[in-house]
């Protein structure tokens, strides 16, 4: 039979050659106890002090195991069939998340950036200064510049390139001229 407690501290350590963690908890009814943390393989997460701990008695050992934790501050946003993993700062505020939605959409959020994969195959990334999208048809759009699947570049702005001469003057593709002396130079912009 399980019971609830309040987490006081969490300590990763090694016991008999095994990497384990101990959760010191206040059960609210006497002395504090230390329970061994238990989680699925591949889950490397650490609860915060004051999280609620779910304890279970270990048969035969006289110890208790921390089998789960409850974050009572954060909203539960995941819908049926979804998985959402989030990180919290020391005060318990959510600061980053990975959300796998039941529509096939995957969203990764951090304080200043977003990465989104849609079920149609498109991928979108953005931060406060720019964005990119790999569209489902294969076109790549970065900050308004489109590179299509054939490598053609389209933009509403101007494309500038630095030349490799010593004075490092900008070369604008719309006015750059080639004249090797044998043929007349094209009109600028052609």
Q: Explain this structure to me?
A:
The strands form three sheets. The protein has a nine-stranded antiparallel beta sheet with strand order 6-7-8-9-10-11-12-13-14, with no helix packed on it. The protein has a five-stranded mixed β-barrel with strand order 1-2-3-5-4. By secondary structure, the chain is mostly beta strands. A hairpin with a 5-residue loop joins strand 9 and strand 10 (123-127). 6% of the residues are buried. The mean pLDDT is 88. The chain folds into two domains: 2-70, Beta Barrel (OB fold (Dihydrolipoamide Acetyltransferase, E2P)), CATH 2.40.50; 83-154. It is built from no helices and 16 strands.
Instruction: Determine the mean pLDDT.
Output: 88
- Which percent range fits the helix content? under 10%
Which stretches are poorly predicted, pLDDT < 50 over at least 5 residues?
none
In terms of DSSP E residues, the strand content is over 45%
The beta-strand count equals: 16
Largest sheet: 9 strands, antiparallel
Q: Domain count, please report it.
A: 2
Q: Name the overall outline.
A: elongated
**Structural class of the helices, strands and pairings?**
mainly beta
The radius of gyration is 29 Å
The spatial strand order of the largest sheet comes to: 6-7-8-9-10-11-12-13-14
H-E string: EEEEEEEEEEEEEEEE
Distance between termini? 81 Å
Q: How many helices does DSSP assign?
A: 0
């Amino acid at each position: 039979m399980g019971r609830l407690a309040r987490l006081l501290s969490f300590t990763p350590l090694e016991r008999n050659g095994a990497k384990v963690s101990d959760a010191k908890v206040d059960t609210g009814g006497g002395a504090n106890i230390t329970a061994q943390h238990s989680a699925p393989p591949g889950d490397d997460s650490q609860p915060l002090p004051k999280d609620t701990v779910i304890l279970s008695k270990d048969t035969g050992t006289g110890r208790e195991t921390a089998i789960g934790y409850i974050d009572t501050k954060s909203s539960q946003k995941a819908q049926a069939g979804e998985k959402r993993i989030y990180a919290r700062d020391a005060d318990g505020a959510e600061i980053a998340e990975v959300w796998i939605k039941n529509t096939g959409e995957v969203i990764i959020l951090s304080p200043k950036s977003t990465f989104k994969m849609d079920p149609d195959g498109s991928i979108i990334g953005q931060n406060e200064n720019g964005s990119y999208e790999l569209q489902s048809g294969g076109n790549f759009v970065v900050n308004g510049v489109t590179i299509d699947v054939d490598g053609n570049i389209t933009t509403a702005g101007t494309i500038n390139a630095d030349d490799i001469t010593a004075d490092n003057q900008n070369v604008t593709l719309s006015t750059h001229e080639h004249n090797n002396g044998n043929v007349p130079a094209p009109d600028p912009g052609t």
